[in-house]
Amino acid sequence: MINAMLSLLLAIALQQPSPVVIDRIMAVVAAQPIMQSDVTAAETFHLVNVPPGTADPTLYVLRQLVRRALMLAEVERLQPPQPDEIEITVRVDAIEKEAGSPAAFDRELAVTGLTRDQVRRFIRDDLRIRTYLIERFGADRPEAEFNAAVDAWVADLRRRTQVTVLNQVR
Predict the structure, then answer these.
(1) What are phi and psi for residue 26, nearest 5 degrees?
(2) What is the CA radius of gyration of the chain?
(3) Which residues contact 81 (CB under 8 A, 6 or more apart)?
(4) What are phi and psi of 165, to 5 degrees?
(5) Which residues have a Cβ under 8 Å from the Cβ of 91 and sit 6 or more positions away?
């Protein structure tokens, strides 16, 4: 009887599906997690421009999302003007067009777990960051000088903020 019960329990245990990782935390910036789904969505919708030939695009996107989170915290603190809704709509429409069709865009949204509104907020925040950077560092600087100033500022933000990258990608 005990052997039959053990056999039944073993059979049931072996039939249970293996746990599936739905999402995972890849980094934490000032107590705000950056999830694997965030990285996937940024890659899928080209919300982060990955330079051609990048050895590990996923790791590059993760690093850019960490950088973005640092900048966004400062932007939230200082509240630059909101971007024009038309500009946001134009950018969302461009992402939808790049997907191939509204249906394909909707499928990509479903796969990544994002909503159209979340994509709009991401773009809105990018535009707010850009406005802040121009106000802080000046639009009239040469591009290399502007980028160097932003990089130094972000490095300082990172030194002052708790940032944890939980594991390297791939």
Answers:
(1) -105, -30
(2) 21
(3) 131
(4) -100, 115
(5) 123
Helix (H) or strand (E) holding 63: helix 57-78
Q: Token match 């009887």: residue?
A: 1
User: Alpha-carbon distance 79 to 89, whole Å?
Assistant: 21
**What Cα–Cα distance (Å) separates residue 158 from each residue in 35, 70, 151, 152?**
19, 7, 10, 10
Q: How confident is the model at residue 15 (pLDDT cuts 50, 70, 90)?
A: low
Q: Tokens 């245990």 identify what position?
A: 13
> In Å, how far from its chain's centre is CA 151?
19
CA 50 to CA 53: how far, in whole Å?
Answer: 9
- Which residue would you say has higher pLDDT here, 7 or 100? 100
Query: pTM higher than 0.85 for the full model?
Result: no
Domains delineated in the chain: 24-165 (1.10.4030.10)
46 Rama class: left (phi>0) / alpha (psi -120 to 50) / beta? left
* 64: CB partners within 8 A, 6+ apart: 42, 48
| Four-point Cα dihedral 37, 131, 28, 111, nearest 10 | 0
Cα–Cα distances (Å) from 160 to 149, 150, 153, 156, in that order, read: 17, 15, 11, 6
